[in-house]
Design brief:
Elements: H1 2-10, E1 29-38, E2 41-49, E3 60-66, E4 73-74, E5 79-80, E6 87-89, E7 95-99, E8 102-111, E9 117-124, E10 132-133, E11 148-151, E12 157-161, E13 167-171, E14 178-184, H2 189-192, E15 205-214, E16 217-224, E17 230-236, E18 244-250, E19 262-266, E20 269-276, E21 288-294
Antiparallel strand pairs: 1-2, 2-3, 3-4, 3-5, 6-8, 7-8, 8-9, 9-10, 11-12, 12-13, 13-14, 15-16, 16-17, 17-18, 19-20, 20-21
The chain binds beta-L-arabinofuranose.
Length: 310
């Protein structure tokens, strides 16, 4: 108990600064950032690459928060594979969304029963947990990954996920069940760009959808091509499309063959979270979360964003 209280109250990772030094977490390797703005703070939910990994050795997730985008508080690890009794590996890229006074964390993990990836959902009363398995089984079980949730203005929630395909399903208001069947978003080159040299994947979409709505426009920011990946985006007039490919955002940089983005507006600024291999010993399986402040173009398009280390 003392340890937990100490962690929550006193752990400020970095001294005050005019802006966040990148990577924002320098004590462990982190990946797959999913930012959430809640009650005047930015919470960043991350995966955790274990030291010395030669593949994705990931068994828990971590949470950090900041009120100024410069000083980050370490909230520890409020969720791990052990949270999901039916999962046995691969604590990969998730997303937290609040609703009904609770916080729902959607994550891809390996289903012990099938040996394939599935999506679980955990719930907590606080953004920092503790989180518990909300349903005791996979919410979606089709072997694909990287869940992300949008709650539209009319209250309809959508769960998006996928690699190699791209899916959505309408979540019920309880956020732990859905109506209808998972639907594939057509991966057309008009919607998701053109990939060459990979007959089974003709578009740029690889994984990591991050869907949000801004000024009436729906955005899907995603990891493009592989490997290595860059970050690109598409837009649509509705949550279900049709999607139009809009171009690259973040080029291939930073020494990790994956990248994974999350975007939020906070205190009048827009912030682009991503990961790279910037820490000592860093690379494709020892990644680090970083953030860049940016400004949307006047027409709502997203400018090129480069990685920085300062
Ligand atoms: O971190 C494991 C996987 O790598 C994620 O699920 C993907 O988005 C990629 O970042």
């Amino acid at each position: 108990v003392l340890c937990t209280v100490g962690l929550l109250l006193t752990t400020v990772l970095f001294p005050s600064a005019a802006r966040a030094d990148n990577p924002i977490v320098q004590t462990i390797y982190t990946a797959d950032p999913a930012p959430l703005v809640h009650n005047g703070r930015v919470y960043v939910y991350t995966g955790h690459d274990e030291d010395g990994s030669t593949y994705f050795t990931m068994r828990d997730w971590h949470v950090y928060s900041s009120s100024d985008m410069a000083n980050w508080t370490d909230h520890g690890s409020p969720m791990s594979l052990a949270t999901f009794a039916w999962a046995d590996a691969n604590a990969w890229a998730g997303h937290v969304t609040p609703r009904n006074g609770r916080f729902y964390w959607y994550v891809p993990v390996r289903d012990r029963a099938t040996g394939s990836m599935a999506i679980g959902v955990a719930v907590a009363d606080s953004p920092t947990g503790p989180f518990r398995d909300a349903i005791g089984r996979p919410l979606v079980n089709n072997g694909e990954i990287d869940p992300n949730v949008l709650i539209d203005d009319n209250g309809q929630a959508y769960l998006y996920w996928g690699n190699p395909r791209l899916w959505y399903v309408r979540l019920n208001t309880d956020m732990i069940s859905y109506s209808g069947s998972p639907t594939q978003i057509p991966l057309t080159t008009a919607g998701y760009g053109t990939r060459t040299g990979n007959a089974s994947r003709p578009t740029l979409f690889e994984e990591a959808p991050w869907v949000f709505k801004r000024n009436g426009l729906y955005y899907n920011v995603f990891a493009a091509e592989c490997c290595s990946e860059f970050i690109a985006y598409s837009t649509a007039p509705s949550a279900t499309g049709p999607w139009t490919y809009r171009g690259a955002i973040m080029p291939r940089q930073g020494g990790s063959f994956t990248n994974h983005a999350g975007i939020v507006d906070f205190n009048g600024g827009s912030y682009f979270f991503y990961h790279n291999g910037a820490l000592p010993g860093g690379g494709g399986f020892t990644r680090s979360v970083a953030v860049e402040k940016f400004t949307y173009n006047a027409d709502g398009t997203i400018p090129t964003i480069n990685m920085t280390t300062a």
